[in-house]
């Protein structure tokens, strides 16, 4: 049925005074969303009052990085009063019952009782460069620019997205701005129908309605486009736009809610790209901290944009949404959406959620498959009952010339499923005919972002009178160097504990030459900044850190390797006890001192960048870069020992490099579960119940594991069975409490205490002992005789193919197995004593204890600062 827009509500209190428009923003915190937030925060709060922000967790950013990014923006802008919500651990039952606090990590149709799951839609978003890695770090400038306030993500204390939405909308009439997938807000509407009356209007950026493209001649005229969406490659779905495609069913529910709705689709935003004249004017006008932050991001995006068509392709998406919405809201009697910035038109549209023929039972549609009564009471043969796109390589959708799937298409429709909405169709030209800025919104954005009113208070440099970035590197003098070690870590909590242990060992015993980051494990790639901060704390800014590939072997899309599937990584929860906590180190990462080293998108052409950038010496090396550097700088006759604490993606890639085996002394692998050897214990793949005996490090990249276990390398395996023997939180914490309290021991104790407390408090943290056991590999590596370690040789084989129930399992195979040295026993009490004694040793201790100590140095007089760049160790 074609609906109609309700009358706009004018808020007036009993005394006749006009009240400000109350606004809630739901955002995926992409860079253009950040521009939009600043534009909104700069408005007069007596007219437009931003009440709350919720983070959309299944879009362009990861929840842990996004929430702290928002907190730092609000701190800079003096708006710590604004509540921010993210995530939640609620689920959706098989019968469609939605439990409280669903986190929005999955599209609604795929949401079960866990925050782990498939990525049928989200796999369209690049994971690493020019994707979520760059968004999470804001291309590397976030930590370099934004100040750090007191608010942060803390496990079990962070307000959820649903809590914040309920609290905000129940408090009074609220206008909602949707800047990402509609998951959070659709769940809110489905579970709180009584509050729908408090939602005045919805403004959403997303979708693509009509096939219009700008001509390349600069005339501003439109021509017919072959593909109207912005997914890439478009060989499966040329119709969808990212925000709507991320959760089509949610967008459908929001659109059909009966709430007045205004859409700002690609039709309009394609007509307001970041033009060269706008960019140059922005470069000239950076009068506020927020303007500087926005321009620095825009500048590096331009440098890294592929194809040299940045000025044509990068548009003012969400900032344009906010501009159009606020301009419309200023005219309270406006029924036709008139505003300063966009031409508007009523259209009858719907959101495509499945593909014809309807009623198809091909296993693609979780609303229909396996149910006698479809989920959420959708009709068996209705618009939600067709084939649902299962990824960017779905055979049903792939078609030469033009893909045939339409999931997420905001399609014009004249049938009973259509809704009448206001749609922005084109950006208005500048009122000033003589201006080089061709669009009226260009001028408004620059004026607002540079206004001294409601401006940011400071950046990280101006926040502290003596802010200075200094690298701390050790001076080992004439000390003999021990065995060269390369540590391959996936940045789980246990890996950071193992790293602290390695950094504390005498350099005469262990010489840590490099760190490789596995991006296919427990944390997302942008968490590499936490590794840099740990090294900075310990005075080891000399150790190079390389970032590994974003996908497990065979998971990247062959047509566009920046995107790929999550067949194995889907086992990691996105919420509590998963990526959310790993990316923030369970809320403790912000207690670490800030390193001058951090991830940056800056790069050289010779390393794959589209063009050289300023200060390319700051570029982020890859894992292969670091490995090659370590090999090239080896002393004659030396060989490298590798310790792996995550998936074996990096190691498998190293094996493909020239003469790799000849320079590797041996490999210590933490992981694997040898089924039914020691006992009948199960593996730890707790989110994949069909798979009983696999261990996560093997499962997360089984083809890489198979390659390593069929190589000529000498392997020492520290299996899951042995890790479990040294996973007593109470024992290790009691030892720590009785040991000398160095800064690194204090930090490790705080982290372990938090893991233990969380395990006792909430079922989502039942697996925390996994991370405590991961320290064992680093300790085994040292070969301390007091630990009474014993090993046996076993012919082992990794199962990498076939049924999901066996992938990642390690079996004993006398015929095809590789002889592997397996840790079989250790003195656990001696192990706990040894680990805590090493961390409590005053030698090779932290040069900066914490961020608070760093703050003290930055606020002290320069002459009172006595930490040198080269610490004598």
Automatic annotation (TrEMBL):
Name of a matching Pfam family: IU_nuc_hydro
Protein's name in the database: Inosine/uridine-preferring nucleoside hydrolase domain-containing protein
Alphabetical list of Gene3D superfamilies matching this protein: Ribonucleoside hydrolase-like (3.90.245.10)
Cross-referenced InterPro entries: Inosine/uridine_hydrolase_dom (IPR001910), Ribo_hydro-like (IPR036452)
Family that this chain belongs to: Belongs to the IUNH family.
Domain Inosine/uridine-preferring nucleoside hydrolase per the UniProt entry, residue ranges: 23-356, 485-832
Family matches, as PANTHER family: INOSINE-URIDINE PREFERRING NUCLEOSIDE HYDROLASE FAMILY PROTEIN (PTHR46692), INOSINE_URIDINE-PREFERRING NUCLEOSIDE HYDROLASE DOMAIN-CONTAINING PROTEIN (PTHR46692:SF2)
Molecular functions (GO terms): hydrolase activity, hydrolyzing N-glycosyl compounds
SUPFAM superfamilies referenced in this protein's UniProt entry, alphabetically: Nucleoside hydrolase
């Amino acid at each position: 049925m074609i609906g109609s827009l309700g009358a706009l509500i004018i808020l007036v209190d009993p005394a006749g005074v006009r009240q400000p428009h109350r606004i809630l923003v739901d955002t995926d915190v992409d860079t253009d969303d950040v521009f939009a937030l600043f534009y909104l925060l700069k408005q007069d709060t007596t007219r437009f009052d931003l009440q709350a922000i919720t983070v959309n967790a299944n879009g362009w950013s990861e929840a842990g990085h996004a929430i702290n990014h928002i907190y730092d923006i609000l701190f800079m802008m003096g708006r710590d009063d604004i509540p921010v919500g993210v995530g939640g651990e609620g689920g959706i039952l098989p019968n469609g019952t939605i439990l409280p606090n669903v986190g929005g990590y999955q599209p609604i149709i795929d949401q079960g009782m866990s925050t782990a799951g498939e990525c049928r839609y989200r796999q369209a978003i690049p994971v690493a460069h020019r994707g979520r890695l760059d968004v999470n770090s804001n291309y590397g400038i976030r930590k370099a620019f934004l100040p750090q306030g007191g608010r942060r993500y803390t496990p079990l204390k962070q307000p959820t997205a649903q809590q914040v939405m309920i609290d905000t909308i129940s408090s009074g009439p609220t206008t909602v701005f949707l800047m990402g997938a509609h998951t959070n807000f659709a769940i809110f509407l489905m579970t709180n129908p009584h509050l729908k009356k408090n939602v005045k209007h919805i403004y959403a950026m997303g979708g693509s309605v009509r096939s219009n493209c700008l001509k390349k001649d600069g005339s501003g005229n439109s021509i017919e486009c072959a593909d109207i969406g912005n997914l890439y490659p478009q060989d499966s779905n040329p119709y969808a736009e990212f925000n709507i495609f991320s959760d089509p069913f949610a967008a459908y529910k929001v659109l059909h809610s009966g709430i007045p709705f205004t859409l700002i689709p690609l039709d309009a935003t394609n007509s307001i790209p970041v033009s060269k004249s706008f960019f140059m004017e922005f470069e000239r006008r950076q009068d506020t901290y927020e303007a500087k932050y926005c321009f620095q991001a825009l500048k590096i995006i331009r440098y890294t944009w592929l194809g040299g068509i940045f000025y044509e392709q990068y548009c003012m998406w969400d900032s344009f949404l906010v501009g159009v919405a606020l301009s419309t809201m200023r005219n309270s009697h406006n029924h036709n959406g008139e505003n300063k910035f966009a031409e508007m038109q009523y259209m009858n549209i719907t959101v495509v959620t499945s593909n014809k023929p309807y009623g198809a039972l091909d296993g693609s549609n979780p609303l229909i498959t396996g149910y006698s009564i479809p989920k959420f009471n959708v009709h068996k043969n209705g618009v939600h009952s067709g084939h649902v796109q299962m990824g960017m390589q779905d055979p049903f959708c792939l078609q030469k010339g033009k893909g045939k799937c339409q999931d997420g298409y905001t399609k014009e429709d004249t049938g009973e499923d259509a809704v009448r909405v206001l749609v922005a169709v084109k950006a208005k030209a500048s009122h000033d005919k003589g201006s080089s800025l061709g669009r009226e919104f260009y001028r408004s954005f620059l004026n607002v972002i540079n206004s001294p009113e409601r401006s940011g208070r400071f950046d990280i440099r101006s926040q502290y009178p003596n802010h200075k970035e200094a690298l701390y590197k050790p001076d080992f003098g004439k000390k003999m160097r021990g065995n060269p070690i390369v540590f391959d870590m996936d940045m789980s909590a246990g890996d950071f504990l193992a790293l602290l242990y390695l950094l504390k060992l005498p350099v005469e015993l262990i010489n840590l030459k490099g760190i490789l980051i596995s991006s296919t494990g427990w944390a997302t790639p942008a968490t590499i900044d936490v590794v840099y901060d740990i090294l900075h704390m310990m005075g080891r800014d000399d150790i190079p850190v390389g970032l590994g590939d974003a996908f497990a072997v065979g998971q990247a899309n062959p047509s566009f390797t920046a995107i790929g599937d999550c067949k194995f990584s889907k086992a990691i929860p996105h919420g509590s006890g998963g990526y959310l906590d790993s990316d923030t180190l369970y809320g403790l990462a912000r207690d670490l001192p800030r390193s001058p080293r951090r991830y940056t998108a800056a790069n050289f052409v010779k390393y794959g960048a589209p063009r050289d950038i300023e200060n390319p010496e700051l570029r982020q090396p890859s894992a292969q870069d670091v490995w090659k550097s370590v090999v090239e700088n080896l002393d004659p006759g030396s060989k490298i020992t590798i310790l792996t604490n995550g998936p074996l993606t990096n190691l498998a890639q190293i094996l493909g490099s020239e003469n790799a085996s000849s320079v590797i002394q041996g490999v210590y692998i933490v992981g694997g579960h040898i089924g039914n050897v020691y006992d009948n214990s199960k593996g730890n793949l707790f989110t994949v119940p069909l798979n009983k005996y696999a261990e996560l490090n093997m499962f997360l990249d089984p083809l890489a594991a198979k390659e390593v276990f069929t190589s000529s390398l000498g392997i020492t395996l520290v299996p899951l069975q042995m890790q479990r023997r040294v996973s007593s939180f109470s024992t290790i914490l009691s030892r720590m409490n009785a040991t000398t309290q160095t800064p690194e021991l204090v930090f490790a104790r705080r982290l372990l205490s938090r893991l233990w407390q969380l395990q006792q408090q909430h079922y989502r943290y039942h697996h925390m002992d996994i991370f405590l056991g991961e320290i064992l590999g680093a300790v085994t590596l040292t070969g301390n005789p007091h630990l009474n370690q014993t090993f046996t040789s076993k012919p082992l084989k990794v199962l990498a193919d076939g049924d999901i129930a066996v992938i990642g399992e390690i079996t004993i195979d006398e015929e095809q197995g590789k002889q592997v040295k397996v840790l079989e026993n250790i003195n656990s009490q001696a192990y706990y004593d040894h680990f805590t004694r090493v961390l409590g040793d005053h030698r090779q201790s932290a040069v900066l204890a914490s961020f608070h100590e760093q703050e003290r140095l930055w606020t002290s007089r320069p002459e009172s600062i006595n930490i040198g760049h080269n610490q004598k160790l």
